[in-house]
From TrEMBL:
Keywords: DNA-binding, Restriction system. This is Type I restriction enzyme, S subunit. SUPFAM superfamilies: DNA methylase specificity domain (SSF116734). CDD domains: RMtype1_S_EcoUTORF5051P-TRD2-CR2_like. It comes from Natrinema hispanicum.
Amino acid sequence: MSEDATLGEFVESESEDDIGKKEDWTIEKVKNHTKLISGAHVKSDNVNNDSAGEPYLTGPDDFEGLGFRVTKYTDSPTKYCEPGDTLVTVKGSGCGKTALSDQRACISRQLKALRPESSINFLHLYYSMKSKENFLQTLSEGSAIPGLSNSHLTTLDIPVPQLSEQRKIATVLYTIDQAIEKTEEVLEQTHTVKKALMQNVFHGRHKDFGEYEQTPVGEIPSDWSVVTIGDVVQTAQYGISESLSEEGQYPIFRMNNIENGYVIDEPLKYIDLDNEEFEKYRVKEGDILFNRTNSLELVGKTGIYELEGDHVFASYLVRLQTNNKTTPYYLNYYMNSSEAQNRMMDFATKGVSQANINANSIQQVKIPLPSLEEQKEIAERIRSIDLQIETNQQYKSQLQRHRRGLMQDLLSGTVRTTDTNIEVPDEIVQHG
């Protein structure tokens, strides 16, 4: 294999003769190869969001990708992590979650830092701890407030092959993580493009329509009209209000089956129905499901059905079926726009923990309505971006599955790197 071996070439090069040959490995305690730094509390008066002082990490909410993002700062720092340290969450619901430090930062008491000694590569340590996240979370659940002690971390067993192999293992996994981060950047950029597009197309700003006029839904081309959702739907129907089970005749959609403007088929509950009831609640292609009851942040979630199979829908959802004045995709995309979501909130009945928008109220929401031809063009433009998002999301999921599998194989010695020429970047060599 060449010095510039690709990840695929590396995987294909492994032979059965390599599997399980790990006599040169040792399983050792974390404390033998690290220094433990416990975070400390910083008073809220000494914390700011104005970039004044040192970066301050408070917990796993700051973790992002391999590392972390800085949102808080402090002028009274106490305990620090350094570049190359592995951060571990030791208090609260995120116990066990890890991140890799790429800069000096003050850490709160919710975090501990493992600083690698010269005997262990910093990325090998990080991935070894990353592979233990679920185990550490289980360890932390023995008390009312989840927590990990110093000994939970320092007595943890990790694999310690020769440094040269540690670096190769780290390189393989780091290469995948870099691909994941690049895909996430593409996804973020595509979401930004979609948001900007949706702010423009529903007001006719994506091309020159000539004259524009102010309306209750903002400025739109003068040959567009303003109607209510009730004007463009022929059905606004509540779902089934019956008990559900883990098994049954028909899968049924609930509040959590709406995601990013589409109806999804996981997770599912089931229900048994006679033929008449099934036909009454059967979801059909192009149906729009609207979440009428949920938290204030989630009420109003809307998705279009384009799946195959026999499905019905539950009572916290309202089914909208369009008439010949609009297309289902146009209405669905508009209802998912930020301005439509904000307008829906004007009709929400707000409770202590939940909000409700009934079927009559949703039909009163005003929408801009171009010609059917223009509606189809708008929907196609948004749909093309959604397909890009879907493709990249699937690729990201594939990379994440691949990383999980390789992490298990490489850190267990099932797959070895000793006989492969993997080029190790300087950034991986410099910390062990």
